[in-house]
Amino acid sequence: MTSINATAEIAALIRSQVASLRKPSGSTASKSQSKHGKLQDERDIAALIAQRVKVIDPDDPQRERKAFRIFLESVLLAELGGDLINDPAFYQMVEDVQLQMESDPGLALAVSQAAKLLLAPLKK
Hints:
The protein has six helices and no strands. It is mainly alpha-helical.
């Protein structure tokens, strides 16, 4: 896989993850998803992200970066296991991943777009 292909795939993944987190909680889902708790887990993660993003100071010059970091931490904890929340090395890894993503022009654009979506007010 070339770097450009990897960048495009990761950017698409970020966009799809943010879009799925922004869906209203009343959206329909298959019975198999609800049986396995996947839908509830996604709602829990989305609610946690929304709650944490909401408290970022609107005047904070690092607001977008912090919003994306919250998203990144949450997704990685969901994928790798919540027990990492107490591991200081986890937060260094998150910082390293975010810096790497921000250093790639294609991913930096996707990260910025994702942060804007995270910070946008929900439409009712």
